[in-house]
Amino acid sequence: MKTKIQEIHTNSITKMTKKCLQIAVLLLLSFTSIQAQDKKAKDLLNEVTSKIKSYDNIVIDFKYSLNNAKENINQDSKGNVTMKGNQYVLNFMGVTKIFDGQKTYTINPEDEEVTVSKVNEKDDNAITPSKMLTFFNSGYKYNMDIVQNVKGRKIQYIKLAPTNSKDQRKEILLGIDVQTKHIYNLIETGKNGTKTTLTVNSFKTNQPLSKNQFTFVASKYPKYYINKLD
């Protein structure tokens, strides 16, 4: 029988990937269509959007933490994501995800398997920029929260609270560097006491990328089983 922590490690890669991509989408998508409950929060989000839209591409190294004191669970993982437009390459927990704008390729070295799936806008579990935009456009109230000094950086937090009482998330805190207008971290607190934190360790822009950066090359994985879901 698996232990509690083993079950979480085995079943949480997809959920963690979604959280990691939340910050990617928040960086890439416009907040101008969101009806703000707090004008200052809206103005700050718009500044973030304007700054990010000026970049051709973004490369982020991040730390992901999962904590639940009641269950005595503390997990830390590192990863990185490269983004250009709606394309991305995400490396996290030993798994690589490539999205070329139409299909997602999930490369799992441990199982020697590549899972290929098309993006389905009607799938509630699909990780797409438009889904994330819808996610933050509806079902959330937000306003300015606390300001913290983190190693000399002034971080302004914006709190997002779900309006659906059935939502298992209590709140989300989005930390923004006031000077650079870059997102510093994303903190999600669940009603069960679980807290997940994604912190940006390195933020690079306009990097020299290969023309095949977001292309899956099957010849690199000759022994892998290609699992086409569509």
TrEMBL record:
It comes from the Bacteria. Gene3D superfamilies: Lipoprotein localisation LolA/LolB/LppX (2.50.20.10). Residues 1-36 form the signal peptide. The keyword Signal applies. The keyword Signal applies. Keywords: Signal. This is Gliding motility protein. The lineage of its organism: Bacteria, Pseudomonadati, Bacteroidota, Flavobacteriia, Flavobacteriales.
